[in-house]
Amino acid sequence: MTGALADTWWWPYVMILVAGWLATDVWRWIGVFAGGKLREDSEMLIWVRCVATALVAGLIAKLILFPQGVLADTPLWLRLAAAGFGFAAFLVSRQKVIVGVLVAEVLLISGWLLLDGVI
Q1: pLDDT tens, 24-60?
Q2: Of 18, 51, 70, 78, whose CB neighbour count within 10 A is largest?
Q3: φ, ψ for residue 28, nearest 5 deg
Q4: 8 A C-beta contact, residue 110 and residue 74
C-alpha cells in the first residue's frame, strides 16, 4: 500500500480491527443462523462437542506432559497431582469448572513455591 493512508498511525489498527472482525464475527453469525436449525441431540452437534472436548483434553495433556516456559520447571508429579486433585474437586463440587481450576492452580502454585523454598 502506498500513499498517505499507509503513513498514518491509525491505519494498522483499522486493518487489525477489520481483519479481526471479518475472521471471527462472520463465522459467528453463520453459526448463529445455522445453529438455530440444529437439534441439540443431532449427530452433527454431538460430533462438534466431541471434537471440542478432544481439543481441550489434548491441550491439557500437552500442558501437563510437555510444558513450556516456567511450567517446565515444575516436576511432572506436581503437575499430575494438581490435575488429579483439580478433577476430583470438580466432581465433588457437582461439576463446577471454576472450583476444579482454582483447586488445581492453588495446588500447583503452592507446590511450586514450596519446592523453590519461597514458603
Answers
A1: 888 888 888 877 777 888 888 889 889 999 999 999 9
A2: 78
A3: -65, -45
A4: no
